[in-house]
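Example record used in the benchmark description.
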Amino acid sequence: MDDFEYKGYWYLPDCEDHQVAGILTFKANDSAILELIGDIDAHDEPLMAIFEQKSHTVIWGVNSDAKRITLLNCHLIGKHLNLSCHFPIMRYSVQFVITGKYVRSYDELAFNSCHVKIPALTQWCFPAAIQQTQLFKDDKTTIKRLSLIIDTEQIEHPIVSVDVEGTTIELHRTVTYCGDLRCPKIEQSTSLVIKKPQKDHLGSFLHDIHVYEQFLSFAALSDASASDIWLQDDDLYQELNNGRKIYTKIQLHYGRKDRSKWNDKNVNFLFEYNAIKENYPNIIKKWYLESYDIAPIRTHLIESIKQKNSFSSLDFLIVFQAIEGFAIRFLYGDKGPKVLLTSLIRDFNGITKLKCDEIDIAAAIDSRNYYSHFMNKSKKPKTLDGAELYYMTRKLRNLLICCMLTFIGFSHENINKLLSKSTYNFSA
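Model output (structure tokens):
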């Protein structure tokens, strides 16, 4: 999502006759702010706009490019009125910006599908839509001709399609061409496409996108967030003479302060698409169908793998709590942390790269109790801190990663095979 600024007229859905000029400023890693020159509520007295604290579920607008714009969840954050002036300046924070369609609410059943660009996805599942061929001269070393071939048939069909209780989760190849013959630029990418059996609301699509982002973050062991989201309403299109339909491009923007910039040069995947290709449909089904059961544990894991400039005891607690929760919810039931950790280490001892015999259970438990309950350190003599606590956190995080792999269907034997080919360094 790129930053932008829209200048236009804004109004409430049922008050189209009263439009107010203003500027919408969107910053991708921060927020969207709408500044209006006037009172959108059309009070008879300008002072009423200052005294009344009113937010709006939805504001509609049209910008200078004649784009239809929907602003959802608009909260009044500032207002100014000079008594010598007959109009106020009103400022709203905006949660969601939809361009290309008017929507009356967050819950309106308005969209049939969405197309999502996630930078990490292209590297994780390489599209291979462009093929390169080389023709050499007789000396077998000098290139005579270099050709790029775009396989359009592959582009027309998904790489993989998975049905999850009616919702279709697909991966698609995309090829974009810009520039001209003097300076051509061709890019290929893999995008996520989510299709619903009937129209659904924005929240449903955002949930499905978030669940896939977390799956990809787990595969990359790095934050993998969407950069662009396009929604589609099957009723909004232009039909060409040959019957082909060109659907209206509806783009969603919303500020995400927690979104990290993807850096493919610093990523070592735990596993890539080709490594799980045969079992991918089953993995995705389980990831989605049990998304609520695993959600807090998955969230803690994703939080623990984010790039940070510092380390603290909270990072240790996030990992330990996730391990404890997984063991209680999916394996052993509600037992004490020492019993749970001992059981996990015993049962996962066959996974070579974990080096379970190097995990000091007593030190992990003392550290957990000390940092969780602020006990007297003399009563928890094996409590770790500094570098020792950091390395304990890494070992426990590796155990949590293997717990998640078993959750999505990997046997311990398959985990060993997967990790033997993985570029992720368990010892780093």
